Amino acid sequence: MTAHRPVPALALTAVQTGVVAVGGWLLLLITFRSPPPLPASWLFWGITLYLALFATLFAFFAQNYAASRTLPSRLSLLLGTEPLFGALLAALLLNEHITTSGWIGGGCILASLLMVLTRRSAPCLALRESATRGSRIAAKYRAASCLYD
């Protein structure tokens, strides 16, 4: 549907937000059968508005905007480390306990990241060759050097 056409970050953010909203309402109705009573406190609604605007809408938009301006290989590596950094920050800032399996999983994520970043691969060499021939991706290669170098 969007092959070879970039999707604006704002449009993608709107779709993501709509999916989250519909999914949240469906989960609420399945779980509670009817909406539970909501607090009338201004503090509650202020915090909820802050979380909705900054932790959800702005985070979705920032991620979509940045994703459109980097190579897919770099983006996949960055997004693959999200659970690792989430767990580490939860342990450091919120005193969460990381289990042995959590440490092993984090080590696997870090090891795979290091393996990818420290090896030369065929896709990198092919990208370099096509860039030297002046192909369409040459500009992208010059703008963001090969990930595996």
Walk me through what this model shows.
With 149 residues, the chain is mainly α. The chain is built from seven helices and no strands. Helix 1 (9-32) packs across helix 2. The longest helix is centred in the middle third of the chain and has 26 residues, at 42-67. 1% of the residues are buried. The mean pLDDT is 81.
What is the strand and helix layout of this fold?
Layout: H1 9-32, H2 42-67, H3 72-80, H4 82-94, H5 100-117, H6 122-132, H7 138-143
Helix pairs in contact: 1-2
Which key features would you list for this structure?
single chain, 149 residues, mainly alpha, 7 helices, extended
Structure, briefly:
This protein is mainly alpha-helical. It has seven helices and no strands. Helix 1 crosses helix 2 (42-67).
